Here is the input.
Amino acid sequence: MSIAFRITLIIVSVFTLLYMCKKVKQEKLQIEYSIFWTLFAIMLVLFSIFPQIADWMSELVGVYSTTNFIFLLIIFILLVKCFQLTMDISKLDNKVKELVQKIAIDEKEKREQK
Amino acid sequence: MKVLIIIPAYNEQDNIERVVKHLTENYPEYDYVVINDGSMDKTSEICHSNHYNIIDLPVNLGLAGGFQTGMKYAYQKGYDCAVQFDADGQHRPEYIAAMIRKIEEGNDIVIASRFVEEKKPTTARMIGSRLITTAIRLTSGAKIMDPTSGMRMYNKKLIEVLANNINFGPEPDTVSYLIKMGAKVAEIQAKMDERIAGQSYLNAVNAAKYMARMLISILLIQNFRNKKKVDFTK
Here is the structure.
């Protein structure tokens, strides 16, 4: 990994962390949703400070260049996260539907009782 | 002092009757409310047929959302303090009187702690507890012997704060944030029982996730939050 790439990774990670903390401070982000991004940023910083870890891992999985391995890893993690988010949205969608239906039926019953 | 016992319950059909009965028969001086967090089993039916004081959530919100419902109820009804109480029979109501005394002495939070006088054993779970104690000590300077104890009492000011804000879940990271803002925390020695029936959601994977979440939150994220959100000097 080149020095420039390592510095870029560190800068991007630190800014991600700071932005997230700002959103928590503004009460716009729940802490449990910030944990993933914190871990993600810490991982990138670790790879930049200790490139040996990434070198070792890329050799282990048979990727020729360490940079390519990092790209691959990031893509893979984001794909998994994306799938998780899809499942979360589906769950939320279901909850909203159930709530709307319950409110509507309750309202109707209230009106009929009057 | 008007005290409300908040009992979040998710699929606790085997425990809820015993727990609430013990409260109503032996501690009628305290009010309680069961928050049924969208249980799939007979928790709700059992409570309604016994005419327990219960709030049914139409969908599952999780412990934090369920507990906050109880805090909103306490806030609306003007309670002076509220205590978080497990529906599985782990917590003993005999400690509530001592907790109220600590609130009356001017503390904002009182934790029923297993390790004020007794030593922490070195099981895997207690190593987690030690890590959280250390994290809180590092970032706020306070020594909380049993940060993961689920039996915590909050005073009137904190009922309002916890009822109406996000990121104030009933967890150790909130306690650490409150200490940093100047809240006074006391612990009393308490014994806790093993859950009698049903399953705890805390398996090894969930416990590890919980630990990671708490440590990152306490060591990192809580430091960036607004330290003037609540004024504890008044």
Q: What stands out?
A: The domain at 3-224 of chain B is CATH 3.90.550.10 (Spore Coat Polysaccharide Biosynthesis Protein SpsA; Chain A).
